[in-house]
Specification:
The complex is a heterodimer of chains A (301) and B (417). Chain A is an alpha/beta fold and 301 residues long. Chain A contains 8 helices and 7 strands. Chains A and B meet through helix 5, helix 6 and helix 7 of A and strand 7, helix 10 and helix 11 of B. Chain A: Keywords: Methyltransferase, Transferase.
Chain lengths: 301, 417
């Protein structure tokens, strides 16, 4: 069963959380270099806080979410003195105007992040117009992301619009011509690490304390060299093969369920016909007078 | 924002339906003031499009007295009236390259092509149109807005109705009189099938379909009736030669039907061979019939294609989403500076020259034929010929002419080559 948890929280599936944090990590150098940062659809700020990796943000952050309490949590995660939490509905021109007003029209370096937000908006036209307008200011940069949910058959009930290759092309036509496109890929991987060091967070990849998939043991003269930095290998997930496999399974289930049902109906009909034939073939309990005159049963059903 | 869509009429057609849907979304969800401007005198009552009641419809004379933020031509002929309206920005909503609808030697063909040279912004509905336009008119601003689907009307089933033993249910739709729709070709393909099938042809005029060539001939149908028909069908067969966004198979996808199509422009917007449909070769009726026979025999494959067709449909935008992109596109066009007035001028001059050369060639050909026909024309002007003609038309002479027909036919054949 899919778990449609749309807000990133502490208990969010690690793969989802990793892809969320990676988007913020990508933006982190620009966030730190900007005197102002606006995070639209900030959620509870987990990704943003992870991107800043515990370092204090020197600029001013405007954190926008539809719910004030959630935006407040994000402000707390980043540091209340530097962050302003704003509740605004980005699906409305009024909400977008609130953001515009909060940002003012200063021309100092500004970074706007808007990750996984547009697909939640009934009307994203005012927001896209705002993003384009902000990006046109000197020293301003906008980074936004949309999911490729067209790739999956299951509809996400939290998404009000559908975002696949076509929708991305439509969106790109609205952006400045020199925009940059990056693709985010899902990876599968494995890491080997000293269990004592894996939890300290110093590695390039986060290894939370947990259940390992395998245990490796080394001994002898060279065993010590294995106690160094953890190693990891990742490969891109074959999402296309997975998609084909899932659709084949879904359609086969439908097909065979129907085929089995049809066979069962035929079997039932055959059994009934056989029973009727057997009943017809059985000698009818007849009276002594009729027995001699009754014609022989034909056996035809 | 005050928007005018220019239309020839409001008769039933896919292109007009798309414009009405966009106009409706702009009014109801984005608060724009939209007018449908009919540029021709109307001879027939408008088709009952859903949502038409929400729209303001007026003629060109009334529209000339107004001022619009954006005026949009929706068909090449409507572009002739585009600049008669006062507007901040002029747009062409390009649903296809419309010159392709006409034969090579018709006057409409170069005229429809030359419309693409106007200094306007473009909005188009298919990737292939946007890409082609970028090559033809690299200077022209072009925004991309796909057509949505009315998911209340084309309401996808929760689960697919798998059909194991019934004849393959095939739908062919389109106007048989329009050469590029390939309706007769599609009917011929179904007739060439060997496996059991049931063909329904949807057309505005049933008399155009030879009796007995289809199991059912229906139409014209409303969108809801069309959706119901697709819902009870397995395959949408479409062998068109020209398409814009190629909507009918997508509507079929929403109702759980797969498709067999030729690789017409627009097919690759959403059709993937072997995934959600079958793409057959051009002019290959035997191969197309075999593809349909395969689907009739292999119900597991048919179910796979139908399942994926439904998945493709789920990811297709609604009219609400599409309308949002249209609103954003028009707002951007209105916000951005207009294209320079000389944009397309070079292409316009080149197209004019091409039209001139084509006309010159036609005139040359005509003069050459006239020269060749001169002796025959001279004979026709003689008194003897006129008498002969009168004699030919005389009722008493008809049996004689009938006897002479093989001879006269041979003479005529020799003369005309």
């Amino acid at each position: 069963m899919p778990d449609w948890q749309e807000r990133i929280a502490d208990d969010t599936r690690p793969s989802i959380r990793a892809e969320h944090e990676l988007r913020y990590a990508l933006a982190a150098p620009l966030i730190r270099a900007s005197t102002r940062w606006c995070d639209l659809g900030c959620g509870s700020g987990i990704g943003a806080a992870a991107a800043l990796a515990g370092k204090a943000y020197a600029g001013r952050a405007l954190l926008v979410d539809r719910e004030q309490a959630v935006a407040d949590r994000a402000a707390a995660a980043i540091g209340r003195r530097r962050a302003v939490a704003l509740a605004a509905d980005l699906a409305t021109p009024e909400g977008v105007a609130q953001v515009r007003g909060a940002l003012g029209d200063r021309d100092d370096p500004l970074l706007v992040t808007c990750f996984e937000t547009i697909e939640h908006l009934d009307d994203f036209a005012p927001l896209v117009a705002l993003l384009v307008e902000l990006a046109a200011r000197p020293g301003a940069t906008v980074v936004l992301s949309v999911p490729n949910d067209a790739f999956w058959a299951i509809e996400n009930p939290h998404h009000t619009t559908s975002w696949g290759e076509g929708a991305v092309e439509e969106l790109r036509a609205l952006l400045p011509a020199d925009h940059v496109v990056l693709h985010q890929f899902a990876l599968n991987g494995s890491a080997i690490a000293d269990p004592a060091e894996s939890a300290d967070g110093s590695a390039a990849f986060a290894l939370a304390p947990g259940v390992p998939s395998h245990v490796l043991l080394a001994f002898g003269d060279g065993a010590e060299q294995f106690a160094g930095a953890p190693v990891a290998r990742v490969v891109q997930s074959d999402v296309e093969a997975q998609r084909r496999w899932e659709r084949q399974r879904e359609s086969d289930l439908l097909y065979y369920a129907t085929a089995v049902k049809a066979l069962e109906e035929r079997l039932a009909a055959a059994e009934q016909a056989a029973a009727e034939a057997a009943a017809a073939a059985a000698p009818a309990p007849a009276s002594d007078d009729e027995a001699s005159d009754a014609p022989a049963a034909s056996g035809h059903a | 924002m005050k928007v005018a869509f220019l239309l020839n009429d409001l008769q039933l057609s896919g292109g007009v339906g798309v414009v009405v849907q966009h106009a409706r979304e702009l009014v109801l969800r984005h608060g724009h003031d939209v007018t449908l401007v009919l540029v021709r005198e109307q001879e027939a009552a408008p088709w009952e499009f859903d949502g038409l009641a929400h729209l303001h419809v007026e003629g060109l004379d009334d529209a000339r007295r107004e001022r619009f933020d954006v005026a949009i031509a929706t068909w090449w002929e409507t572009a002739y009236s585009l600049f008669e309206l006062e507007a901040d920005r002029y747009v062409h909503f390009l649903q296809s390259f419309e010159d392709r609808f006409y034969d090579r030697l018709t006057a409409e063909r170069p005229a429809a092509a030359a419309i693409l040279d106007l200094p306007v912004s473009y909005v188009t509905e298919a990737t292939w149109i946007a890409e082609t336009l970028a090559r033809v008119r690299p200077d022209a601003p072009c925004l991309f807005v796909r057509n949505g689907i009315d998911k209340d009307v084309f309401r996808s089933p929760e689960t697919l109705d798998v059909r194991l033993d019934e004849p393959l249910r095939i739908v062919v739709e389109g106007n048989p009189d329009v050469w590029f729709k390939g309706v007769y070709e599609s009917i011929g393909v179904v007739r060439a099938m060997r496996e059991p099938r049931h063909l329904t042809v949807v057309t505005g005029d049933a008399s155009k379909i030879e009796p007995g060539s289809a199991d059912a001939v229906v139409g014209p149908l409303t969108h809801r009736e069309m959706a119901a028909l697709y819902g009870s069908s397995d395959v949408v067969l479409k062998l068109s030669k020209v398409e814009g966004m190629f909507g009918p198979p997508l509507e079929g996808f929403h109702m759980g039907a797969t498709c067999v199509v030729a690789p017409v422009t627009g097919f690759d917007e959403y059709i993937e061979h072997g995934w959600n449909g079958l793409v057959v070769d051009w002019d290959d009726p035997a191969g197309t019939a075999r593809a349909l026979d395969l689907l009739a025999r292999d119900r597991r494959l048919l179910t796979f294609l139908r399942t994926n067709a439904l998945e493709t449909a789920r990811s297709w935008p609604t009219w609400e989403q599409s309308g949002t992109f249209m609103a954003a596109a028009l707002e951007k066009i209105h916000r951005d500076p207009p294209p320079p007035p000389y944009a397309g001028a070079r292409q316009l001059v080149a197209d004019s020259r091409l039209a001139l050369e084509t006309q010159r060639l036609l005139m040359h050909e005509r003069n050459e034929y006239r020269r060749l026909a001169k002796p025959a024309l001279r004979v026709k002007q003689t008194t003897a010929w006129r008498r002969l003609k009168r004699l030919r038309e005389h009722p008493a002479m008809q049996p004689v002419w009938k006897l002479m027909r093989p001879f006269t036919r041979r003479v005529r054949s020799k003369l005309t080559g």
